[in-house]
Structures are given as C-alpha cells and as structure tokens.
Amino acid sequence: MTATPASSAATPPVVDRETWLRERDELLAREKAHTREGDAIAAARRQLPMTLMPTVTVQGPDGDTPLVEVFEGRRMLIAYFHMWHDGKPHELQCEGCTFCTCHMQTLDYLHARDVTYAVFSQGPYEESAPFAEFMGYPFPWYSAKESDPALADGRDFGFIACYLRDGDQVYETYWTTGRGVEALTTSYHALDLTVYGRQENWENSPQGWPRVSGHPWRLNGRPTAQWSRPGVTPAVTS
Description:
Layout: H1 17-46, E1 51-52, E2 57-60, E3 63-66, H2 67-70, E4 76-82, H3 95-101, H4 108-112, E5 115-121, H5 125-135, E6 141-143, E7 159-166, E8 169-176, H6 186-191, E9 218-219, E10 222-223
Parallel strand pairs: 4-5, 5-6
Antiparallel strand pairs: 1-8, 2-3, 4-7, 7-8, 9-10
C-alpha cells in the first residue's frame, strides 16, 4: 500500500482567514445536523426490540464456553465475528477484520458502562488464538467454528452483534456489517478530519488528491497493523 507523497499532491486553494472561517462555519452547520441525525438514529437503535438467543457455546481457553459466560458478569456484550482462513499464516489472515479489531485496545470505558467486548473467530481456537496473542489483543478471543449455527444465524463473518444478559437469558439487540463496523475504526474517523481523508479510490475528492495504491488495509504483504507487532518477520507478497 502506497500513497502519493504529500509534497507532490494537490492542495486546497489558499484564501484569507475571514473567507476560510466563513466556509468552515457553513460546513459546521452541516456537521451539527449530521450529529443530531446520528443521535436520533442511536436513540432508535436503543429502542429496537430484542430476540432471545438459544443456548449456544463458543470455544475458548477452557473449552466450550456458554455464551452467557462470555459476558464476564457484565450486562452487555459486543462481539465481533472475525473471518478466518484455515491453515493460513498470520500475514494472510483477513486484513479487514484485523483493521477493525486492532483498534479495540482500551476497554476501560466499555467496562465502566457494563459492556464486555469479545471476538468470535471463524477458525478453530487452537489455530486462531495464537494470532490474537501475536497481535497483542487485550480482549477475550473465542472460536465459533464448532458453535451452533444459530449464533451466526446465516450471516457472513465480519459483523458486529450486540447482546443483553438478563440473568441467564441472552438476547440479541443489534447487529451490523459492511460499513457499520466502522464504529470500531477510530483511525478512519480521524482520517476523515484531514484534508486528504482516507485516500481511498471511492472517496469524492478533488483531482490530484493522493490515493492509496493497492489494498487499503495491507502494507508490503501484511495487514498494516502487524508491522508494529514484536517479532514480525518479512511477509509473502500478496
């Protein structure tokens, strides 16, 4: 993955401070409207009905683990369903799921609101757990490979599901996939504030703005986040 060097990329027009502040304020009005609509959607999300989950298990370090135990005693659970390519090395695992989950490093604020975050891997636990250790993930990692199909309910891995625990009963309250999983990706939210944005080909940017060349979540044959992990070795070209 490479991008046009900043020194050779086009830049926005230069205007005086008064003009810049006026145009910034016009955009601010749109941003505030967007925020209010987001708040309204979040309110509707909180008022969705929920559906009872059957008794299902996932596989963890202690073997089969009932879904209710994944909550770790908390009331709510956010689970990311991580794609897995059986038998493939770390550098060939799903770059999109790596991109989403690698951002979830600080769990204190979730725990303070009675929420547990966990990952359910599509691959077997014995094979996928070393990947989580290699990545340095601080959250619990389980396998859903041998789980009752009712857990994924026909959905392709690469989605978020949210659950509520009421005693020993577990209810699914929400799920999202596609760009909905960007809720986890703080890097994207930060890049959206910059002049060149995410630098991806689908974005509506002016002519001459830098664009990523190659896969947006891979760098030199690896999911980008892997390069900062201890002990990483050169990867195969992909």
